[in-house]
Amino acid sequence: MAQAELILDAKATLGEGPSWDERNGLLYWVDIEGKRLHTYETGSGKTSSVSFGQRIGAAVPRKSGGVVMAMQDGFYAYDPARGGLSFLGNPSGRKEETRFNDGKCDAAGRFWAGTMSLTGKAGQGALYCLETDLTIRTVIENVSCSNGLAWSPDNRTMYYIDSPTRKVVAYDYDLASGQIANGRTVVEVTEKGAVPDGMTCDAEGMIWVALWGGFGIRRWNPATGELLLKVEVPAEQSSSCAFAGAELNELYITSARVGIAESDQPLAGGLFVYRAGIKGLPTFAFGG
């Protein structure tokens, strides 16, 4: 079994949402419950973090500078060089006692992000799309825990995870319009105690899925459902992953330590890397 190595002993409560800012050589990631946005310079190993007053589900680079974040109260832009945090919008009809969770941009620069219940109630979340003109669409409703998103190399397929279903669902994707159709299950997680969490896709079209409760990442062929690789992570709550680095062949993995004793898993909440030797797809920036 392949092994990921610790790159930063961050001890995050709920590490999530890694994304790669190629222009600045920065990996962004968040601690949702710690309400912090973290950066990691892959070249130098330098780190930084900024604290906010609300949970952050995901952060993605913005073409015009800074990042766009899906926070508990909606979408925000953050640019420390231009004066900080600004509110972009909150989906209409969003149910109370929900928060944003994972999110990612497609190749056209739209920011897709979904919500989940703060109390564990099923079906309270939804998947939304923040368009580049800052309008917000509701795309999928009755979601319990909106999580991983990925697109195929040709942008003709979108992959999506609602964690409690234990399934990765594929949709036909129209990049020009951002419309999805023909949902079908391509992977079902059967490992005891594990549910699929964050996800990314590589240049070969294979998907890499973090298993919450599964101590690692799994690489699947979505066309056949075949399990191709297991990457072991010394943190049970492996939460998400993204390709980064100069060659896009390093898989960075976030983790959490929710309810885990320090003595049981001392590296839980750390940031890990797996030298994949396989090129990933880039992190697309928000275009608005």
Structure, described:
This protein has 288 residues and is mostly beta strands. The chain has a single domain (2-275), classed as Neuraminidase, CATH 2.120.10.30. It has strands at residues 2-3, 5-8, 15-21, 26-31, 36-41, 47-51, 56-61, 67-71, 74-79, 84-89, 98-105, 111-117, 125-130, 136-143, 146-151, 157-162, 167-174, 179-188, 195-201, 207-212, 216-220, 227-232, 237-244, 250-256, 271-275. A five-stranded mixed sheet has the order 1-22-21-20-19, with no helix packed on it. The protein has a four-stranded antiparallel sheet with strand order 2-25-24-23, with no helix packed on it. Strands 3-4-5-6 form a four-stranded antiparallel sheet, with no helix packed on it. It is globular.
> Could you name the ranges where pLDDT drops below 50 across 5 or more consecutive residues?
none
Largest sheet: 5 strands, mixed
The domain tally reads 1
CATH class: Mainly Beta
The number of helices is: 0
CATH topology: Neuraminidase
Q: Beta fraction of the residues?
A: over 45%
| Relevant CATH superfamily | TolB, C-terminal domain
Structural class estimated from helices and strands = mainly beta
Overall mean pLDDT: 96
Straight-line N-to-C gap: 41 Å
Computed over alpha carbons, the radius of gyration is 17 Å
CATH-scheme architecture: 6 Propeller
Secondary structure: number of strands = 25
Q: Helical content, roughly?
A: under 10%
Name the strands of the widest sheet in spatial order.
Answer: 1-22-21-20-19
Overall spatial form: globular
What is the H/E string?
EEEEEEEEEEEEEEEEEEEEEEEEE
